[in-house]
Amino acid sequence: MFKGRCGCGAVTYHMKTAPMFVHCCHCCECQRQTGAAYVLNAIIEADRVEFEGPITEHELPTPSGKGQIITRCRDCGVAVFSSYMVRLGKLRYVRVGTLNDPDQCPPDVQIFTSSKQTWVPLSEDIPIFDEFYKFDEVWPKEALDRLEAALA
Protein backbone atom coordinates (compact mmCIF):
# COMPACT_ATOMS: atom_id res chain seq x y z
CA MET A 1 0.00 0.00 0.00
CA PHE A 2 1.16 3.51 -0.80
CA LYS A 3 0.80 5.70 2.29
CA GLY A 4 1.66 9.35 2.76
CA ARG A 5 1.05 12.47 4.78
CA CYS A 6 1.52 16.21 4.91
CA GLY A 7 4.41 17.85 6.76
CA CYS A 8 2.72 17.98 10.17
CA GLY A 9 0.90 14.66 9.85
CA ALA A 10 -2.62 16.08 10.21
CA VAL A 11 -3.53 14.88 6.71
CA THR A 12 -2.83 11.25 5.92
CA TYR A 13 -3.71 9.29 2.81
CA HIS A 14 -3.21 6.02 1.04
CA MET A 15 -3.42 4.98 -2.57
CA LYS A 16 -5.25 1.68 -2.93
CA THR A 17 -3.17 0.73 -5.99
CA ALA A 18 -0.04 1.80 -7.77
CA PRO A 19 -0.47 4.96 -9.83
CA MET A 20 -1.15 4.78 -13.54
CA PHE A 21 1.86 6.93 -14.44
CA VAL A 22 4.36 9.29 -12.79
CA HIS A 23 5.45 12.64 -14.23
CA CYS A 24 8.61 14.50 -13.35
CA CYS A 25 7.45 17.94 -14.48
CA HIS A 26 9.91 20.77 -15.07
CA CYS A 27 7.36 23.38 -16.21
CA CYS A 28 7.60 26.92 -14.87
CA GLU A 29 4.22 26.64 -13.09
CA CYS A 30 5.27 23.52 -11.16
CA GLN A 31 8.51 25.25 -10.23
CA ARG A 32 6.61 28.29 -8.96
CA GLN A 33 3.99 26.26 -7.08
CA THR A 34 6.48 24.01 -5.32
CA GLY A 35 9.41 26.36 -4.90
CA ALA A 36 11.56 23.60 -6.36
CA ALA A 37 13.16 22.76 -9.69
CA TYR A 38 10.46 20.21 -10.58
CA VAL A 39 7.61 18.20 -9.12
CA LEU A 40 6.86 14.48 -9.15
CA ASN A 41 3.17 13.70 -9.61
CA ALA A 42 1.75 10.18 -9.37
CA ILE A 43 -1.38 10.09 -11.53
CA ILE A 44 -4.12 7.89 -10.11
CA GLU A 45 -7.88 7.55 -10.21
CA ALA A 46 -9.46 9.81 -7.58
CA ASP A 47 -11.52 6.97 -6.12
CA ARG A 48 -8.32 5.03 -5.41
CA VAL A 49 -7.06 7.68 -2.98
CA GLU A 50 -8.48 7.84 0.52
CA PHE A 51 -7.47 10.63 2.88
CA GLU A 52 -8.27 11.98 6.33
CA GLY A 53 -7.57 15.29 7.97
CA PRO A 54 -8.20 19.00 7.59
CA ILE A 55 -7.68 20.23 4.04
CA THR A 56 -8.04 23.42 2.06
CA GLU A 57 -8.39 23.60 -1.68
CA HIS A 58 -6.92 26.37 -3.79
CA GLU A 59 -7.82 27.01 -7.42
CA LEU A 60 -4.85 28.08 -9.51
CA PRO A 61 -4.61 29.01 -13.18
CA THR A 62 -2.65 26.87 -15.60
CA PRO A 63 -1.00 27.83 -18.90
CA SER A 64 -3.77 25.92 -20.72
CA GLY A 65 -6.37 28.16 -19.09
CA LYS A 66 -8.22 25.14 -17.68
CA GLY A 67 -7.01 25.57 -14.07
CA GLN A 68 -6.31 23.16 -11.29
CA ILE A 69 -7.21 22.59 -7.65
CA ILE A 70 -4.35 22.11 -5.19
CA THR A 71 -5.33 20.19 -2.04
CA ARG A 72 -3.28 21.23 0.98
CA CYS A 73 -3.17 20.46 4.65
CA ARG A 74 -5.15 23.20 6.39
CA ASP A 75 -2.66 23.22 9.29
CA CYS A 76 0.78 23.16 7.65
CA GLY A 77 -0.07 24.14 4.06
CA VAL A 78 1.78 21.28 2.38
CA ALA A 79 0.33 20.36 -1.02
CA VAL A 80 -0.66 16.71 -0.93
CA PHE A 81 -2.26 16.37 -4.36
CA SER A 82 -3.84 18.29 -7.18
CA SER A 83 -6.58 17.82 -9.74
CA TYR A 84 -6.97 19.55 -13.07
CA MET A 85 -10.34 21.26 -13.52
CA VAL A 86 -11.02 19.50 -16.83
CA ARG A 87 -10.81 16.13 -15.02
CA LEU A 88 -11.98 17.24 -11.58
CA GLY A 89 -13.11 14.35 -9.44
CA LYS A 90 -11.70 11.75 -11.81
CA LEU A 91 -7.92 11.90 -11.33
CA ARG A 92 -5.57 12.95 -8.56
CA TYR A 93 -1.98 13.96 -9.04
CA VAL A 94 -0.40 12.81 -5.78
CA ARG A 95 2.75 14.69 -4.81
CA VAL A 96 5.27 11.86 -4.64
CA GLY A 97 7.37 13.69 -2.05
CA THR A 98 4.51 13.33 0.46
CA LEU A 99 4.60 9.52 0.29
CA ASN A 100 6.13 7.76 3.28
CA ASP A 101 8.34 5.96 0.75
CA PRO A 102 8.75 8.15 -2.36
CA ASP A 103 10.99 5.48 -3.92
CA GLN A 104 7.78 3.52 -4.60
CA CYS A 105 6.92 5.95 -7.41
CA PRO A 106 9.91 6.73 -9.62
CA PRO A 107 9.16 8.92 -12.65
CA ASP A 108 8.07 7.31 -15.89
CA VAL A 109 8.81 10.46 -17.93
CA GLN A 110 10.48 13.84 -17.62
CA ILE A 111 8.26 16.53 -19.17
CA PHE A 112 8.57 20.21 -20.05
CA THR A 113 12.33 19.88 -19.91
CA SER A 114 12.64 22.89 -22.23
CA SER A 115 11.97 25.02 -19.12
CA LYS A 116 14.03 22.99 -16.65
CA GLN A 117 16.67 24.68 -14.55
CA THR A 118 20.00 24.50 -16.39
CA TRP A 119 21.77 22.92 -13.41
CA VAL A 120 19.31 19.97 -13.20
CA PRO A 121 20.75 16.87 -14.85
CA LEU A 122 18.33 14.59 -16.70
CA SER A 123 18.49 10.82 -16.45
CA GLU A 124 18.92 9.23 -19.86
CA ASP A 125 17.15 6.16 -18.42
CA ILE A 126 13.84 8.06 -18.16
CA PRO A 127 12.17 9.31 -21.37
CA ILE A 128 12.71 13.05 -21.89
CA PHE A 129 10.20 15.40 -23.52
CA ASP A 130 10.80 19.09 -24.25
CA GLU A 131 7.08 19.71 -23.72
CA PHE A 132 4.37 17.05 -23.34
CA TYR A 133 3.84 13.74 -25.19
CA LYS A 134 1.17 11.65 -26.87
CA PHE A 135 -0.41 9.33 -24.30
CA ASP A 136 -0.69 6.33 -26.62
CA GLU A 137 3.03 6.57 -27.47
CA VAL A 138 4.22 6.58 -23.86
CA TRP A 139 1.73 5.05 -21.41
CA PRO A 140 1.58 1.25 -21.08
CA LYS A 141 -1.67 -0.32 -22.35
CA GLU A 142 -2.85 -1.22 -18.83
CA ALA A 143 -2.40 2.39 -17.71
CA LEU A 144 -4.20 3.67 -20.81
CA ASP A 145 -7.10 1.31 -20.09
CA ARG A 146 -7.31 2.61 -16.52
CA LEU A 147 -7.19 6.21 -17.76
CA GLU A 148 -9.95 5.61 -20.29
CA ALA A 149 -12.14 3.96 -17.62
CA ALA A 150 -11.53 6.83 -15.17
CA LEU A 151 -12.43 9.49 -17.71
CA ALA A 152 -15.53 7.66 -19.03
UniProtKB/TrEMBL annotation:
Keywords: Lyase, Metal-binding, Zinc. Pfam families: GFA. One of its GO terms (molecular function) is metal ion binding. It comes from the Bacteria. InterPro entries: CENP-V/GFA, Mss4-like_sf. Residues 2-120 form the CENP-V/GFA domain. PANTHER family: CENP-V_GFA DOMAIN-CONTAINING PROTEIN, GFA DOMAIN-CONTAINING PROTEIN. Belongs to the Gfa family. This is Glutathione-dependent formaldehyde-activating enzyme. The lineage of its organism: Bacteria, Pseudomonadati, Pseudomonadota, Alphaproteobacteria, Rhodobacterales.
